[in-house]
Amino acid sequence: MKLTIERAALFRALGHVQSVVERRNTIPILSNVLLRAEGGKLHLTATDMDLEIVEAALAMVETAGATTAPAHTLYDIVRKLPDGAQVELSLNPDGKSLALRAGRSRFQLGCLDVADFPSMTGGEMPSAFDLPAGGLRNLIDRTRFAISTEETRYYLNGIYLHAGEFEGAPALRAVATDGHRLARVQAPLPEGATGMPSVIVPRKTVGELRKLIDEAAEPIHIALSETKIRFSVDDVVLTSKLIDGTFPDYERVIPEGNDKVMEVDTKGFAAAVDRVATIATEKTRAVKLAITDGQLTLSATSTDQGSATEELEVDYGADPLEIGFNSRYLLDIAGQIDSDTARFYMADSGSPTVIRDGGGEESPEAEAPVGDEAIYVLMPMRV
Helix, strand or coil for residue 260? Predict the structure, then answer.
């Protein structure tokens, strides 16, 4: 194998693939990136056995071939090379080392056998459809903050992607929850997604996919089966195993009949919560909302730090209510509200609260219209 490639093209591809490689591996081959040169391109592959990424970059291929090299070391070398450098990669005759040349720089990297490198490309994926990059970005950004990090509840460690229906119109839904808050976003169901299996996309896969979306020039092709999902983003193919578990019946968590409705300026509310939460204890991060006719008083107390209060004008005409929330959860949700106002639907101090974009429907039990609107559910806490 021998080829020459521009430093920028190699650096971009390595930046994508090396992030899949875990820093610590008990299996040596998983620390390496597979380099395959053929047909005027260099194909780079990395995997952790659950997630695989393959990217192609244009190269001048003198001799076709393949090898593997330490992913993070190769990335660090290329990162430190000067802009505009031409990088020559050649496999030494013994097949056990890779020579890298750029200008006056010379490196020799140890290689492992290509035959030992695992592959995830097998198996059929009967469901396939395209999504605009912006649509997929919206589904991810407005739900992933609610993904659980608790490994014992592994079935919550991802985004639940499935087909639903709203007033006879099919919808593609993304849902995430950690038991304390829930986020649900829906978009029109793409052509070809009818009959797709309901799947849970792992947190790491969601993170790696999100890095690729901003650079996408074309719609993203998604193919999936009961056990795997594949995202094709321009010259990058991301294949992942799915979480083997049953996502809970989240519809039961979304309360109906929350009749106390408060509308508040989104940015002003977020800024006030952030200020008051400075006093909140690190463990609970609790902030209390005391709501009366036209006024919201935010407060936090700490035995060590003192206390803080701030008042805001709100649109509220129901009975007075005091309710507490985790300030970080409030800020996470407020950060997803696009409109100038956020609408809170509450029942009492111990029941889940529904939070929506102020431009949404008038009642919490009405489902979000098939578009990019989201609905959030937040559990209260004692303060």
Answer: strand
pTM (2 decimals)?
A: 0.91
Distance CA 103, CA 259 (A): 70
Q: What is the largest CA-CA distance in the chain?
A: 81
Residue-wise pLDDT tens digits, 265-314:
999 999 999 999 999 877 778 999 999 999 999 999 988 889 999 999 99
Q: Which residue has the tokens 């038991």?
A: 179
- Which residues have a Cβ under 8 Å from the Cβ of 329 and sit 6 or more positions away? 180, 181, 378
- Asked if residues 342 and 247 have their Cβ atoms less than 8 Å apart, the reply is no
Give 44's contacts (C-beta < 8 A, 6+ positions apart).
Answer: 13, 14, 17, 33, 34, 35, 36, 54, 55, 56, 57
Q: What is the three-class DSSP state of 129?
A: strand
Could you tell me which of 266, 253, 265 has the C-alpha nearest to residue 331?
A: 266
The CA distance from 225 to 138, in Å, is 23
SS3 352: coil
> Which residue from 174, 185, 177 is spatially nearest to 155, judged by alpha carbons?
177
Cβ(42)–Cβ(56) under 8 Å? yes
Q: Are 274 and 332 in contact (CB under 8 A)?
A: no
Backbone angles phi, psi at 14, to 5 degrees: -65, -35
Q: Which pLDDT value is given to residue 167?
A: 66
Percent of the chain with pLDDT over 70: 96
Contacts of 244 (CB under 8 A, 6+ apart): 227
3-class DSSP state of 200: strand
**Residue pair 68/112 in contact by the 8 Å Cβ criterion:** yes
Nearest in space to 170 (alpha carbons), one of 192, 154, 145: 192
Q: Yes or no: say if 184 and 250 are a contact pair by the CB < 8 Å rule.
A: yes
